[in-house]
Specification:
Elements lengths: L2 H7 L2 H12 L6 H12 L6 H8 L8 H13 L4 E3 L7 E3 L5 E6 L5 E5 L25 E4 L2 H5 L3
Parallel strand pairs: 3-5
Antiparallel strand pairs: 1-2, 3-4
Helix pairs in contact: 3-4, 3-5, 4-5
The structure holds zinc ion (2 copies).
The site of one zinc ion has 6 residues, from strand 3.
């Protein structure tokens, strides 16, 4: 382990990250920490490529493939959310508080829409297929962002 890695491991943010990973049954590594921190700093629901471009200048040790792989591990462990919007590339969200999204049908930009606690949708148990378990849901609103709405047709 390099001196820099040793320092990172005592960083309070890394310690908080390790606790988060522990709760979700995932090992906390420096590479995973870098990817998670970068995603948390970006509030635009970035694609794996956007995350890679952002971290690459300072952390060349994390490859594009690692970014893809780590994001998938996080999403499977439910540390972050993967957004699958038809017709647009895969995006990720580190904001795990329940919220909705407004998606621009033109450029694919994704905006957070706050939702009220009492707005939670619950499914009647009889509507869930036998043996299936509901883990999460998202509500997506389709529209145009300000920039696309202002574009001449
Ligand atoms: Zn747009
Ligand atoms: Zn979001």
């Amino acid at each position: 382990m390099s001196e820099k890695d040793k320092m990172t491991k005592n960083d309070p943010e890394f310690i908080a990250f390790r606790e988060l990973c522990n709760r979700h049954g995932l090992a906390a590594t420096i590479q995973r920490f870098i990817v998670y921190q970068t995603l948390c700093q970006m509030h635009n629901h970035p694609t794996p490529d956007m995350i890679f471009e952002r971290l690459h200048p300072t952390c060349s040790s994390v490859s594009r493939m690692s970014v893809y792989r780590i994001l998938e591990q996080f999403s499977r462990s439910r540390i972050i959310r993967r957004l699958n919007h038809p017709g647009s590339s895969m995006r990720y969200d580190a904001f795990m508080h329940p919220h909705h999204h407004l998606i621009c049908v033109d450029c694919g930009a994704v905006y957070d829409i706050p939702c009220q606690e009492d707005e939670q949708i619950t499914l009647p148990p009889e509507s869930v297929p036998d043996g299936a378990i509901v883990l999460d849901y998202t509500l997506d609103f389709q529209g145009l962002c300000r920039r696309c709405a202002a574009k001449p047709v």
